[in-house]
Amino acid sequence: MNSYKEEILKDIPHFNNWKTITPINKGYSNDLKFKVELKDEQHQMKFQLLRISESKLFKEKNIEFSMIKIFNNVLLNDGDNDDDDDDDEKLEVEMSKPIDIGLCNEEKNVWMLLTWIEGEDFNDSIFNESIENQYRLGLNAGKLLKRFHSIPLSSIIINTTPPPPIIINGDRLEKRLEVISRFENDINGKFRFENDQCIINYCKLNLEKVIKINENLQNSKLVLKHNDFHFGNMILIKNNNNNNNNNNNNNNNNNNNSKLGIIDFNRSQFGYGYQEFQKIQFFNVALSIPFCVGQIDGYFNNQEPPLDFWYSFSTFVATCCLGGIVWAESISDNQIELMKERSKIILNHFDNFNLIIPKWYTNFKK
User: Fold this and answer.
1) How far apart are CA 222 and CA 168, in angstroms?
2) Looking at the predicted structure, is the pLDDT value of residue 250 above 70?
3) DSSP of 145-188
């Protein structure tokens, strides 16, 4: 490791246990991230994930640390939740688990240590899986998401220390109306694109109604969300032992030996459960429609999704089209153009928002 890293990390209690420290440069997080290799494997653990933040975020990072514990509890309590008929099923999912947290670099930074999930980047690997496996992985993602959204808010307050989080709705109406206004009144001409008015009109017509619906829905009212639940924060975990026993690539794809890994909980917040699905339209559909269909089916226990879901989904996707372009301004002009292109594809999927169920879902179900 170079001297700069040592200067920041050397007073972390685990520092002397690390053999190598490798920077991770993926993602949009402001955290510094490192893959650390242990000198001696601990509990069959060879690697860990280290995140470094500014010390002013110590309170927020402690809450995040507690939240990751709470998210992980849904895999420890299979069968304890009465909301779903299939909760006795053990999900084929792994999540990064919290190990330790503290201050370092003469208390200028916060460090957080998590378990490392070994596997392949979902964006690069999902299309190599069979259609059946893609759908199965999506089913597990949807069932896991439903368990996240079923965590009682009262238990979050009790089990988060110190201190308990203030439960604020991150999906409040005013926040979304502000984004729509910024897009519509863009004075620099960076945001607007052909046929975008139908998205603006759809949002204005439906957003307030959808927010009211979600406030009263048992499935979607204020819940704890991962809030960044898409392929960029997923790992494809392969069972290499099975692969060694089978040299036929086609058979490997049908062995159902791959699992889903979930990482990066740093954007978790409270909001509407149905809003969590908008990310699949933006980040996942282009790579794996079977996974996306499976995620929706898994969330609703293989029952037909209610119309309230589709009404909410289409409206949240529409607002995300505008919000994504506004957000991209803080990244680059190229990112703005990328989000515009994604929005044009979405217009096609929803037939200029004359449909509430996207074509990719109905076509897959035929």
Assistant:
1) 9
2) no
3) HHHHHTS-HHHHHHH--SSPPP--BTT-HHHHHHHHHHHHT-SS
What is the distance between the alpha carbons of residues 327 and 335, in angstroms, rounded to a whole number? Answer: 9
Q: Which residues contact 96 (CB under 8 A, 6 or more apart)?
A: 49, 68, 114, 115, 116, 117, 261, 262, 263, 264, 265
The tens digit of pLDDT for each residue in 330-364 reads 889 999 999 999 999 999 999 999 999 999 999 99
Residue 21 tokens read as 């420290």
Residues 6+ apart with CB under 8 A from 290: 131, 132, 134, 135, 138, 364
| pLDDT (tens digit per residue) in 276-315 | 999 999 999 999 999 999 999 999 999 999 999 999 999 9
Contact 297, 176 (CB under 8 A): no
Instruction: For residues 332 and 204, give the distance between their C-alpha atoms in angstroms, rounded to a whole number.
Output: 27
pLDDT over 80 at 126, yes or no:
yes
Euclidean distance between CA atoms 353 and 281, whole angstroms: 14
> Rounded to whole angstroms, how far apart are CA atoms 361 and 358?
6
| pTM, 2 dp | 0.88
Beta strand ranges found along the chain (DSSP E):
18-24, 32-42, 45-54, 93-95, 98-104, 109-115, 120-121, 223-225, 234-238, 258-262, 269-271
Token pair of 26, please? 């993926």
Residue pair 195/245 in contact by the 8 Å Cβ criterion: no
Query: Which DSSP state fits 29?
Result: -
Report how far residue 95's alpha carbon sits from residue 117's, in angstroms, rounded to the nearest whole number.
Answer: 7
Q: Residue 86: which pLDDT band, with cuts at 50, 70 and 90?
A: low
Residues 178, 326: Cα–Cα separation, whole Å: 11
The answer to whether the Cα torsion of 305, 310, 311, 317 is positive or negative is: positive
Sheet holding 234-238, edge to edge: 93-95, 258-262, 234-238, 120-121
